Amino acid sequence: MKKEGLIMNDFRFYNPVRIHFGQSSLNKLPKELAAVGKTILLAYGGGSIKRTGLYNRVMAILEDCGKEVVELSGIMPNPRTEKVYEGIELCKKHNVDFILAVGGGSTIDCSKAIAVGACTDRDFWEAFYLNNEAAEAAIPLGVVLTIPATGSEMDRSAVITHWETGVKTDYNSDLTFPKFSILDPTLTYTLPKNQMINGIVDTLSHIWELYFSEPDTDSVTDNLAEALMRSVIAATRVAIKEPEDYIARSNIMWASTVALCGMIGNGKNSDWASHNIEHAISALFDVAHGAGLAVVHPTYMAYFCQNAPERYARYAVNVWGVDPTGKTALEVAREGVQCTRDFFNEIGAPATLTDLGVPESAIDDLVAHTDMGAWAYKKMTQDDVRAILRMAL
Questions:
Q1: pLDDT digit string (tens) for 247-277?
Q2: Quick one: DSSP state of residue 37?
Q3: Residue 170 is part of a domain; what is its CATH number?
Q4: What is the pLDDT of residue 6?
Q5: Domain span including residue 378
């Protein structure tokens, strides 16, 4: 007889996103655009797509397809409500038919929030992000991905920050799945090193949030998660030295997409406590999400691994190759956590709150802004969060 709570959870899996992957994938954009309306909102960030020439390539395709283009530029990391409101206003003013997000997770998340916000007379933040009301309609959107990190190109989630209140949270709807996403690994060659590192951290963190949760019985889901982790680690070590190694960049890009497409969470409870702690940090200090996770997640692991030593020991052995001979499960678990921190140090990720410019005096405020609603093996309290943040100084 199986123990109660150890049977794989029932799950619903749905993902309608059409993926075009490869170095010629941008050539698929005209066919995709032929199926959408005439007026396109082109959403992008701080201008890197102009420096790399991607902006001109996309604009040429839009022009050849006879589209009228409305531009929303300057979408910031940790996208804020004011940018969403700006996009909603543009969509309503110009009767936008389709949103094309060119960039990373911030641009995509902002576009998703605009997509649902432009189809209602309600305040998007209050209705969807505070009250979690169901969206009834959304402007369809597509993606040209430039930063592998968040997995937003193949999921239904959009994280937005309300800067005035220090609240950073997400909204999820089947209506915000992109219709298609174009993933060309060569578009990541010009990424600054710190952005690549932040994206890799974010990718691994997404896998951990799902993997380190019950049920812990052997499953296809957990085996996939371990394979993804090993692939990301190996590819990162190559890409750090050879930024234009196509195989390494391909594996990083596809892993970041798969990490949050739904499959790695099938049958799992999931955690997300580390993300909730980091959301408070980036909401109050505007640090890059991946940089915050590089500090928080290994510290969170070190703090909580004693509550699930067998699971963390499996991680240590299967992902990092730790030899368990003659060791307790907790000893092996702690070696795995140390391997995690050592890897982040190896690739140059930040290690402490001090590295992020977050002072000790901010801890109480960060605790107050952390959502306690997500946890896995032990219910997280404010005292736990405070202890984790102090460990991370």
A1: 999 999 999 999 999 999 999 999 999 999 9
A2: -
A3: 3.40.50.1970
A4: 64
A5: 193-392
pTM: 0.95
Type and span of the H or E element at 172: strand 167-172
Distance CA 256, CA 148 (A): 6
Query: Is it the case that residue 311 has pLDDT exceeding 70?
Result: yes
What pLDDT was estimated at residue 1? 30
Q: What is the pLDDT of residue 5?
A: 47
Q: How many helices (H) and strands (E) does the chain have?
A: 15, 8
For residues 161 and 258, state if they share a domain: no
**The two structure tokens encoding residue 250:** 């391909």
Both 222 and 371 in one domain: the answer is: yes
pLDDT of residue 7 exceeding 90? no
Q: Assess whether 114 and 155 both reside in one domain.
A: yes
How confident is the model over 333-363, as pLDDT tens digits? 999 999 999 999 999 999 999 999 999 999 9
Size of the chain in residues: 393
Tokens encoding 360: 């000790």
The helix (run of H) or strand (run of E) holding residue 246 is helix 246-259
CA 101 – CA 144 distance, rounded (Å): 6
CB atoms within 10 A of CB 100: 26
CATH of the domain at 381: 1.20.1090.10
Q: Is 90 helix (H, G, I), strand (E, B) or coil?
A: helix
Number of structural domains (the chain) is 2
Measured N-to-C along each axis, helices 309-320 and 220-241 cross at an angle, to the nearest 10 degrees, of 50
pLDDT above 70 for 318? yes
